[in-house]
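TASK: fixed-backbone design
INPUT:
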């Protein structure tokens, strides 16, 4: 479960990348990505620029609809990845019994992600170039996260 604020930009892009990469991975039957937001309402479409940028990567997120974190109970064993520390903090309040399964995406992707940015900035209201930059960062983090999940010594929880 990828979590941001409004569940219309960052987390739907992360969900799109993860599900796209899982399609050809050995773990495709084990993992499925979802997303939600800590300050949203259910049913909002993905941001138009997020849809456009993801289409440039060959990924269609046009059917995405926002979901408020905590409006439903994710299955046991769900891993939660916040885009920023504020999302991690909110998730630990919403799901106190699952605090060991809640991580900052940039931290969870280490050691395979070694970039300087651990929090994913919000592109909402920015120009298309910002969305492209954020999609590149998310792609890098998601690929690193997948390598971490495939690692025999993986211990994300």
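OUTPUT:
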């Amino acid at each position: 479960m990828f979590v941001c604020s409004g569940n219309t930009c960052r987390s739907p892009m992360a969900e799109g990348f993860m599900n796209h990469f899982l399609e050809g991975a050995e773990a495709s039957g084990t993992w499925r990505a979802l997303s939600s937001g800590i300050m949203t309402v259910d049913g909002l479409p993905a941001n138009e620029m997020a849809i456009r940028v993801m289409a440039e990567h060959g990924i269609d997120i046009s059917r995405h609809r926002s979901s408020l974190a905590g409006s439903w109970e994710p299955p046991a064993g769900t891993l939660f990845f916040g885009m920023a520390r504020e999302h991690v903090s909110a998730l630990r309040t919403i799901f106190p019994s699952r605090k060991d399964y809640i991580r900052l995406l940039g931290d969870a992707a280490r050691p395979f992600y070694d970039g300087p940015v651990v929090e994913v900035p919000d592109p909402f209201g920015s120009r298309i170039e910002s969305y492209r930059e954020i999609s590149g960062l998310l792609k890098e983090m998601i690929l690193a996260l997948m390598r971490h999940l495939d690692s025999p010594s993986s211990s994300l929880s």
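COMMENT: Residues 2-150 form a domain with the Rossmann fold fold (CATH 3.40.50.2300).
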